[in-house]
């Protein structure tokens, strides 16, 4: 393997250390720890694991966290009522609603009900709009924000580079493209209808794959010396977890690449904690 491995686990541990330092300072100044509330609806097994990870990691930084679990058949109004209670709770600085939600729940209505100042996932329309309009005071979505940190730690300055983002979801692809643009990259967003994905990828100095198709991005497409970030998490029938990039072949050509697992995933949780302590400080400053 020629490429440097971008170790998301190690970088996430470093971010958590920085967050713990900020939590100590917050506690000393305000006599309480920042508070995070996680709303989980139903019994999605992966969500159970991720939420447990979020609660555990927040506790390890010294934050206070609580999980609010609603039944599988909860209505949009019931989820909204839980969010409203948390919006009004002065001990809570950050709220997130774990996705996906059961199909009867209107996801965007729920996300837009979270007070923007407590929206530590950065999915509220106001925070998405602030990112779009170049405002620095909004909350940035955790996965793309974590990827910007991974690139920085790998020594990649996106300014002037060609970046290709594969995937156009609201939680990864679109905010990723905007963060790369903010960092002065020349950004192309590709998706399932892109005519020649191989050609687009071959031109890219930075590739962010977030399309959810196992090993769609072939190693031979990667430009020599590119930075490759794999957001994909695809569980094969064999039980093996693979990304959206053909890892071994891509690593022969890339300058640096993230593994799956142990790349982007751990950063999502670390950046959530970072957003929460920042939200706690911003709420105090706004009083
Ligand atoms: N409200 C939110 N919902 C969801 C988000 C989100 O950011 N906010 N992102 C994903 C799930 N997610 C966090 O919530 C998440 C996914 C994966 C990982 C992770 O560390 N993955 C491991 C591999 C895990 C495995 O073996 O299955 C890794 O990549 O190393 C962390 C967080 C959707 N929902
Ligand atoms: Mg729905």
In short:
This protein is α/β, with parallel strands linked by helices and 287 residues long. Helices cover 43% and strands 15% of the residues. The mean pLDDT is 98.
Overall description:
It is a single chain. The chain is an alpha/beta fold. The mean pLDDT is 98. The protein has 2 domains: 31-115, 3-Layer(aba) Sandwich (Rossmann fold), CATH 3.40.50.10860; 142-265, Rossmann fold (3-Layer(aba) Sandwich), CATH 3.40.50.720. The longest helix has 23 residues, at 8-30. β9 (234-235) and β10 (241-242) form a beta hairpin. 45% of the residues are buried. The protein is built from 10 helices and 11 strands. The site of magnesium ion has 4 residues, from loops. Residues 6-121 form the Tetrahydrofolate dehydrogenase/cyclohydrolase catalytic domain. Residues 141-282 form the Tetrahydrofolate dehydrogenase/cyclohydrolase NAD(P)-binding domain. Catalyzes the oxidation of 5,10-methylenetetrahydrofolate to 5,10-methenyltetrahydrofolate and then the hydrolysis of 5,10-methenyltetrahydrofolate to 10-formyltetrahydrofolate. One of its GO terms (biological process) is methionine biosynthetic process.
